[in-house]
Amino acid sequence: MKNATITGWGKCMPPAVLTNDDISTFLDTNDEWIVTRTGMKERRISHVPISELAHVASVRALAAAGVDASDVDLIIFGSCTPDEIVPNSASLVQRLLGIEKAAAFDINTACTSGMYALSLASSLIRTGTARTALVIGAEVISNVQDWTDRNVAVLFGDGAAAFVLQETEEEEGVLADKLGCLAESRDILRAHGMGTRYIDGQTILGTVWWNFQGQEIFKKAVLGMCEASAQALEKAGLSTDQIDLVVPHQANLRIIDAVAKRFGVPAEKVFINIHKYGNMSSATTPVALVEAIEEGYVKPGMNILLPAFGAGLTYSAHIIRWGERVEPVGSAEIELPPCEKTGLELVREMMQRPRAGGPF
């Protein structure tokens, strides 16, 4: 039976950091308030378009796999903040990589986009449609952030991660997954202003107001992640005790703690990097998995559980069996262009952009 194993991994984090103390210079908040409620201390702000973050992460993933870009026959780009809607961002990454004829498409399920992309790529490899896939989770959410709203401005950051998946006969890669959506609750996490319905001569496309009902999101997120994880475990024929590492979506430390407690997972089995990056939407779980590999948490043959949720309210859970290799085959000499500004300076520039209209 064909499977799709992860052979390469890479991330790209913008260098500009926005700390909680920085945010307190333009919002009524402070470090203690943010850390207590979210577990976040800082996040990254990108000075380049999302395609550049995705390109760098992809080059690093290909080098880690020891795979030439010309061997990639499928690119799936998970994001809700693409450079453009038409044409898609996957095709731009394809061009930047110099790949001529790969299938390339974007997917948007908000914060779960990178994980949905992992499921799709794995399935297409299993069916023989593709043999080598590049899966990307990337976000430049700072550009569509409402920096006047304390409820959301403290939560999100920018970043990208990519994985190379290849065909294998070994029992590796995604052993089981569960994807779903609590559509009746889609309005509790909603970004007004992104989409053609807002083109009315008064509202600027891309000027965003957020509907963010924190308490309801918390309840639905814990419910979705726990139910998806339970179903994925059942499909894989595994118990919670057989999971060696949990790499959850890093949206809120309280949510992570609640999911771990409900499943009886000890803290030492849960990988957390929310304090460094906040919630990077589609990039969050992919970046966390890359860092778990880089920091030595991932061992050969491990069973890894990755639960996530996003606006929609989409949810997912993946059980991955890691292969034998946890060290990259090679490295790539590629970096982002230098950034001459701080995260706070970049955000203050964004705050000077004209706003129009209001929520619909």
From TrEMBL:
Example GO molecular function: beta-ketoacyl-acyl-carrier-protein synthase III activity
Renumbered residue ranges of the record's region ACP-binding: 250-254
Domain Beta-ketoacyl-[acyl-carrier-protein] synthase III N-terminal: 105-179
Location in or out of the cell: Cytoplasm
Entry annotated with the keyword tRNA-binding: no
Keywords in alphabetical order: Acyltransferase, Cytoplasm, Fatty acid biosynthesis, Fatty acid metabolism, Lipid biosynthesis, Lipid metabolism, Multifunctional enzyme, Transferase
Pathway where it operates: Lipid metabolism; fatty acid biosynthesis
Catalytic activity entry: malonyl-[ACP] + acetyl-CoA + H(+) = 3-oxobutanoyl-[ACP] + CO2 + CoA
Keyword Lipid metabolism in record: yes
Documented EC number(s): 2.3.1.180
Domain notes: The last Arg residue of the ACP-binding site is essential for the weak association between ACP/AcpP and FabH.
Similarity section: Belongs to the thiolase-like superfamily. FabH family.
Function: Catalyzes the condensation reaction of fatty acid synthesis by the addition to an acyl acceptor of two carbons from malonyl-ACP. Catalyzes the first condensation reaction which initiates fatty acid synthesis and may therefore play a role in governing the total rate of fatty acid production. Possesses both acetoacetyl-ACP synthase and acetyl transacylase activities. Its substrate specificity determines the biosynthesis of branched-chain and/or straight-chain of fatty acids.
Summary of subunit composition and partner proteins: Homodimer.
Protein name (database record): Beta-ketoacyl-[acyl-carrier-protein] synthase III
Organism: Dethiobacter alkaliphilus AHT 1
Lineage: Bacteria, Bacillati, Bacillota, Dethiobacteria, Dethiobacterales
